[in-house]
Amino acid sequence: MLFNSFVFVFFLAIVLPVYYRLSHAWQNRFLVVASYVFYGWWDWRFLSLLAVSTAVDYVAAQAIEATRSVARKRLWLFSSLVANLGILGFFKYFNFFVDSFSRVLVSLGLNPNPPVLSIVLPVGISFYTFQTMAYTIDVYRGQQHATRNLVNFALYVSYFPQLVAGPIERASRLLTQIERPRRVGQDQIASAAQLILWGYVKKVAIADGLASYVDIAFQKPMELGAGALWIGLYAFAIQIYCDFSGYSDIARGVSRLMGVELMENFRQPYVSANITEFWRRWHISLSTWLRDYLYISLGGNRKGPMAQYQNLIVTMLLGGLWHGANWTFVAWGGLHGLYLALHKLITRGRKISETPPPNTLRSWSVQIVKMLVTFHLVCVTWVLFRSPNMETAYLYLGGLISPLFPFFERTTTPEFIGAFWTLLFYGAFAIMLDLGCWLGNHETCTPPRMRWWVRGAAYATGLLILSFVRAPSGEAFIYFQF
């Protein structure tokens, strides 16, 4: 069930009125049922995986908390990790690892006949698997009490606004809110409506509007000149940001309508002055998960600079693999790990804080230069992220620099002349949405203190854009494939 579909609007129109009329305990029971309907809309067979993950971690967490034996605690944690990672590994990575191993054997002169299974990837499996694993690990570390209420825990795992594409919530935030009664006031409804509106504008108008140009650019990079390829790359940078942050905004808004606050998953990442800041603003729930449960577990920065650089690279390599069963994602993560390690080396351990909005002409000039450098470093990695294979990524990167190296010379296609103006329109609108949030430190570009007639004009503009500028057909959210 897609957020940008009439089915979801109908679904929400049924869920909310019923939810508001129920007591706290029945609200949770009802939301579990609604969440399973929401998830089962794609394929009801995968509901069993959701139920298994719920049951495994519900039992494991209680067993970990109940025993005083360190060995038994570790055994239960190990059982939970094996079960969760086993399910994730089979459905997401089985064919990838079999195919990679087969290629190694072929390179050695052997002729393997590996098994190939037709495996459908369950939507959102990476997100809810990481969420349940975090709960069990926190209980093992003594940072979270194991819940005895199965309904509450089942809702924590399956909560439909953030089930299929995050944010990846911790039990200390989401489960705590589920366990206590919730009230929804007028201010919450108003702010939720804003998040939902601007989330739809980002996704339906901007991201979907750029999707066709991005598809063309990455389907045939050999046929396009450098100018067209740069347009396609910039378009994808805007598309993936507006697609994923738009989903997160809608999820947060829908959840707020039920009195539950989800964490902010994006905070204007393209205003970052360096790559470390970028990862504090981009997909925050994943970056903090990787930091707390992988990077720190590997040793973090406790064993000296060289170990820290190695831990950063390993963490980002695995973070890249989390995104998909393809070497392009591994390379994407590895390159970001290298960026982070180099930035740590350059700054020599200095504390890096988020950049505040400039207040002088000189500070604006410096900030813009830093932003442009960081943005283009990120764009290079987006080529790997979007390309279907490493060969396409190589051809695309070569085409970007073809004016400098005749070996990569291409022909320019006229079809991207219109794409240039389209990119300018959507890019300017995306910048306007983010710039207002960044300068005023607001979650949307229409904060409550803004005059009512200005907000009204902004809402009307957003609705008009949704009506007239949106793509002709709804596109699935990009991160559903992860």
Largest sheet: none
Number of helices: 17
The structure class reads mainly alpha
Tell me, rounded to a whole number, the average pLDDT. Answer: 87
Rounded to the nearest angstrom, the radius of gyration is: 23 Å
**Global shape:** globular
- The number of distinct β-strands equals 0
Strand content: under 5%
Distance between the termini: 16 Å
Report the uncertain regions. Answer: none
Pattern of helices and strands: HHHHHHHHHHHHHHHHH
Helix content: 55-70%
Number of domains: 2
How would you describe this protein?
There is one protein chain. The chain is mainly alpha-helical and 482 residues long. The protein has 2 domains: 6-182, no CATH class; 188-273 and 355-481, no CATH class. Helices cover 68% and strands 0% of the residues. It is built from 17 helices and no strands. Helix 9 (226-256) crosses helix 14 and helix 12 (305-323) runs antiparallel to helix 13. The two termini are 16 Å apart.
List the helices and strands and how they pair.
Elements: H1 6-20, H2 24-40, H3 47-66, H4 70-107, H5 125-141, H6 150-158, H7 174-179, H8 186-219, H9 226-256, H10 275-281, H11 284-298, H12 305-323, H13 327-347, H14 361-386, H15 390-400, H16 415-440, H17 452-468
List keywords for this structure.
482 residues; 2 domains
How would you concisely characterize the structure shown here?
The chain is an all-alpha fold and 482 residues long. The protein has 17 helices and no strands. The chain is 68% helix and 0% strand.
